[in-house]
Write a structure and sequence with these properties.
about 110 residues, 5 helices
Length: about 110
């Protein structure tokens, strides 16, 4: 979707959208010099609206929260890659890894 459709769905004006883009809170795909937004951008915009309008979080707080969300998203991706790599190992290696994880959890009381 383009800027106009995105703004209609999210219900923000041009100025607000440009501020979000300048802040780096939204990072839409660019093609032929035009921005294209997807469902993840809409979800991110809804989070920004919740933070700023409903919760009263200031810009610095939004910066921090968006950064943390991005870090969590990155960590989830890394974890999926690690689990995939682990599942491709021989049974013996997979069992050793699981046993080691169970041992660590027990030590931490999890």
């Amino acid at each position: 979707m383009d800027d106009l459709e995105f703004r209609r769905i999210v219900k923000v004006d041009v100025t607000v959208l440009e501020i979000w883009l300048d802040q780096g809170w939204l990072l839409p795909q660019a093609e032929d010099g035009r921005r294209h937004y997807g469902p993840a951008d809409v979800a991110r915009a809804e989070l920004i609206l919740d933070l700023t309008q409903r919760m009263g979080v200031n810009d610095e707080g939004v910066d921090l929260i968006i950064d943390l969300v991005d870090q969590i998203h990155g960590l989830r991706g890394t974890m999926h890659e690690m689990l995939d790599a682990m599942e491709r190992q021989d049974d013996d290696i997979r069992h050793r890894i699981r046993d080691r994880l169970d041992h660590i959890r027990r030590l931490r009381g999890l």
